Protein backbone atom coordinates (compact mmCIF):
# COMPACT_ATOMS: atom_id res chain seq x y z
CA UNK A 1 0.00 0.00 0.00
CA UNK A 2 1.12 3.54 -0.73
CA UNK A 3 1.43 5.98 2.17
CA UNK A 4 -0.06 8.69 -0.06
CA UNK A 5 -3.44 7.31 -0.94
CA UNK A 6 -6.25 5.03 -0.11
CA UNK A 7 -6.66 3.84 3.46
CA UNK A 8 -3.90 6.05 4.86
CA UNK A 9 -5.47 9.21 3.42
CA UNK A 10 -8.87 8.21 4.80
CA UNK A 11 -7.32 7.35 8.16
CA UNK A 12 -5.63 10.75 8.31
CA UNK A 13 -8.91 12.51 7.54
CA UNK A 14 -10.76 10.49 10.13
CA UNK A 15 -7.96 11.10 12.59
CA UNK A 16 -8.21 14.84 12.01
CA UNK A 17 -11.91 14.68 12.76
CA UNK A 18 -11.22 12.58 15.84
CA UNK A 19 -8.65 15.10 17.03
CA UNK A 20 -11.07 17.98 16.54
CA UNK A 21 -13.78 16.10 18.42
CA UNK A 22 -11.35 15.28 21.21
CA UNK A 23 -10.32 18.90 21.54
CA UNK A 24 -13.95 19.92 21.77
CA UNK A 25 -14.85 17.22 24.29
CA UNK A 26 -12.37 18.55 26.85
CA UNK A 27 -12.82 15.69 29.29
CA UNK A 28 -11.15 12.84 27.42
CA UNK A 29 -7.53 12.87 26.42
CA UNK A 30 -6.80 12.45 22.73
CA UNK A 31 -5.41 9.00 23.48
CA UNK A 32 -8.59 7.95 25.32
CA UNK A 33 -10.74 9.31 22.51
CA UNK A 34 -8.77 7.44 19.84
CA UNK A 35 -9.00 4.21 21.84
CA UNK A 36 -12.75 4.72 22.30
CA UNK A 37 -13.10 5.11 18.54
CA UNK A 38 -11.33 1.80 17.93
CA UNK A 39 -7.81 2.89 17.05
CA UNK A 40 -5.12 0.44 18.19
CA UNK A 41 -3.25 1.36 21.38
CA UNK A 42 0.15 1.69 19.64
CA UNK A 43 -1.36 4.17 17.18
CA UNK A 44 -2.98 6.18 19.99
CA UNK A 45 0.27 6.19 21.98
CA UNK A 46 2.22 7.33 18.92
CA UNK A 47 -0.32 10.01 18.10
CA UNK A 48 -0.16 11.40 21.63
CA UNK A 49 3.66 11.52 21.57
CA UNK A 50 3.76 12.97 18.05
CA UNK A 51 1.15 15.59 18.85
CA UNK A 52 3.10 16.77 21.88
CA UNK A 53 6.26 16.95 19.77
CA UNK A 54 4.45 18.78 16.97
CA UNK A 55 3.11 21.42 19.34
CA UNK A 56 6.62 21.93 20.71
CA UNK A 57 8.14 22.10 17.22
CA UNK A 58 5.77 24.89 16.20
CA UNK A 59 6.70 26.99 19.22
CA UNK A 60 10.01 27.91 20.78
CA UNK A 61 12.45 25.19 21.70
CA UNK A 62 10.71 22.26 23.26
CA UNK A 63 11.09 18.58 23.92
CA UNK A 64 10.18 15.82 21.53
CA UNK A 65 8.47 12.71 22.83
CA UNK A 66 9.21 9.69 20.73
CA UNK A 67 9.64 6.09 21.75
CA UNK A 68 12.34 5.41 19.16
CA UNK A 69 12.41 1.60 19.56
CA UNK A 70 8.61 1.49 19.16
CA UNK A 71 8.78 3.93 16.24
CA UNK A 72 11.26 1.71 14.44
CA UNK A 73 9.58 -1.60 15.28
CA UNK A 74 5.84 -0.82 15.31
CA UNK A 75 4.30 0.62 12.15
CA UNK A 76 1.11 1.63 14.01
CA UNK A 77 3.07 3.67 16.56
CA UNK A 78 5.13 5.28 13.78
CA UNK A 79 2.04 6.15 11.74
CA UNK A 80 0.33 7.58 14.83
CA UNK A 81 3.42 9.61 15.74
CA UNK A 82 3.76 11.02 12.22
CA UNK A 83 0.06 11.90 12.01
CA UNK A 84 0.02 13.47 15.47
CA UNK A 85 3.16 15.48 14.79
CA UNK A 86 1.92 16.91 11.47
CA UNK A 87 -1.58 17.72 12.65
CA UNK A 88 -0.63 19.32 15.95
CA UNK A 89 2.30 21.26 14.49
CA UNK A 90 0.05 22.67 11.76
CA UNK A 91 -2.67 23.50 14.28
CA UNK A 92 -0.32 25.43 16.59
CA UNK A 93 1.39 27.17 13.66
CA UNK A 94 -2.01 28.26 12.33
CA UNK A 95 -3.01 29.58 15.74
CA UNK A 96 0.24 31.53 16.01
CA UNK A 97 -0.29 33.05 12.57
CA UNK A 98 -3.84 34.07 13.46
CA UNK A 99 -2.66 35.46 16.78
CA UNK A 100 0.07 37.68 15.34
CA UNK A 101 -2.02 38.66 12.33
CA UNK A 102 0.25 37.46 9.56
CA UNK A 103 -1.33 38.58 6.31
CA UNK A 104 -4.12 40.36 8.12
CA UNK A 105 -6.66 42.53 6.30
CA UNK A 106 -4.73 45.60 7.41
CA UNK A 107 -1.57 44.17 5.84
CA UNK A 108 -3.38 43.39 2.60
CA UNK A 109 -4.94 46.88 2.52
CA UNK A 110 -1.54 48.49 3.10
CA UNK A 111 0.06 46.45 0.30
CA UNK A 112 -2.81 47.36 -2.04
CA UNK A 113 -2.45 51.08 -1.28
CA UNK A 114 1.33 50.86 -1.72
CA UNK A 115 0.93 49.08 -5.06
CA UNK A 116 -1.65 51.65 -6.20
CA UNK A 117 0.69 54.48 -5.28
CA UNK A 118 3.61 52.81 -7.03
CA UNK A 119 1.49 52.31 -10.13
CA UNK A 120 0.49 55.98 -10.19
CA UNK A 121 4.09 57.10 -9.67
CA UNK A 122 5.36 54.85 -12.45
CA UNK A 123 2.53 55.98 -14.73
CA UNK A 124 3.51 59.63 -14.26
CA UNK A 125 7.19 58.85 -14.78
CA UNK A 126 6.51 57.13 -18.11
CA UNK A 127 4.48 60.13 -19.36
CA UNK A 128 7.23 62.63 -18.55
TrEMBL record:
Signal peptide: 1-20
UniProt key word Lipoprotein: yes
Domain of life: Bacteria
Keywords associated with the record: Lipoprotein, Signal
The protein's name in its UniProt record: Lipoprotein
Organism name: Pseudomonas rhizosphaerae
Amino acid sequence: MSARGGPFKQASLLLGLALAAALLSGCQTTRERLLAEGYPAPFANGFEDGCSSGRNAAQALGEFRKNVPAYLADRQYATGWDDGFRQCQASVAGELQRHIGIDSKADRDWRHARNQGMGKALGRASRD
